[in-house]
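The authors assume throughout that readers already know how a fold can be written as discrete tokens. What matters is that the chain and its backbone geometry are given together, residue for residue. A single example would do more here than another paragraph of explanation. For illustration, here is how one protein appears when written out as sequence plus structure tokens.
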Amino acid sequence: MKRTDINVRDPFVLVEDDTYYMFGTTMSLKKQKFLVWKSKDLEEFEEPIIAFDPPEGFWSDRDFWAPEVHKYKGKYYMFASFKSEAKCRGTQILVADKVEGPYKPLTDEPYTPRNWECLDGTFYVEEGIPYSIFAHEWVQIKDGTFCLVQLSGDLKEAVSEPRTILTASEAPWISPINGDSYVTDGPFIYKMSDSSLILIWSSFSDTGYTIGMAKSTNGINEPFIHVDKPLYKDDGGHAMIFKDLNGNLMLTFHRPNTLTQERPFFLQIEEHDGILRVVH
């Protein structure tokens, strides 16, 4: 199947054995689950297979969103958002022996605070210590934030209290929704060649869904400062960064931000003047 035939939000790509594995949110499924598409060129994809089918008794029955997969200590860990009628949305970790799955819950509950509405947890390891950045959602606090937690070495729990590292309304390019609310979506950490960190994330600007940036010059525990100009602002977002099979730095995201019309996009990016920019 062609890339342009795939309706998916929040695409996430892991490259393994000269193959691209693409995960994402599929809103059209009758039963909540996660799929994975395999490709050799990012244009032609195999028919998807099921990466995660929730076991009987799984606490969530809706809003299976934004799966991203990271290789860590020889296994593959999926960070994904879930919700139920009775419980707040949270990010939970799943685990598998193979990149395509099948994934199983690592624990019974999310690692994000159970009385917070949270989503879009991402993963980063610094000096051997695992961390996660997740969104404290605007639906609960209006001015969405990103929070940092340290995870245990086995990823089974958060071992620090959440610390706010970024507030949506402080971004110079952002526009509110519903009059007074500011969205934080899709955080992802990229380490620059000078070892500074770029946090890409998504919200809304005057041109629709937009990918912004924030920068820390001295590690994940140091302050992140908003970058004035967005990385991409043509109604596309929830992005991540990977290197393609030719060594090019690539940005993937969904566009447009309209239900049933979203498609995965891939753009080459590069480091420039201490931040990132689109090549084409």
